[in-house]
Amino acid sequence: MDEKDQDGIPLLTKDEAIAEVRRWQEVEKVDPGRIFAASRETTIRYKDLIQHLEQETPDGKLLLFAISRGRFMKKSRDQGMQALLQIIDRPPEPEKPPAS
């Protein structure tokens, strides 16, 4: 993950992106026929992702960006949620008696 896009988001390597897609298929049991992305003339299904990434097609390069961005956003969201939970779980400060 050495390269970064214009927004400073680290780009995954081709192998990391393929591993992420395999995890979706094996662990999360994503339907292979489900549409991952669609534009006017192109529809890419989950079952086609690895092929596009391996062959480094123009669509594969866009998919690499999309997968990288999605992973980064998920990681950021998870970190934010953890920080929020730490604030919520922190017990309130004990009240100090008023100074006389």
Based on helices, strands and strand pairing, what is the structural class?
A: mainly alpha
State mean pLDDT (0 to 100 scale).
79
Tell me the number of strands. 2
Give the SSE string.
Answer: HEEHH
The side-by-side strand order for the widest beta sheet comes to 1-2
Regions with little confidence, pLDDT below 50 for 5+ residues: none
Share in helix: 40-55%
Shape: elongated
Describe what is shown at a glance.
By secondary structure, this protein is mainly α. Helices cover 52% and strands 7% of the residues. It contains 3 helices and 2 strands; from the N terminus they run αββαα.
Describe the protein.
It is a single chain. This protein is mainly alpha-helical and 100 residues long. It has one domain (1-75). The chain has 3 helices and 2 strands. Strands 1-2 form a two-stranded antiparallel sheet. Helix 1 runs antiparallel to helix 2 and helix 2 (49-55) crosses helix 3. The mean pLDDT is 79.
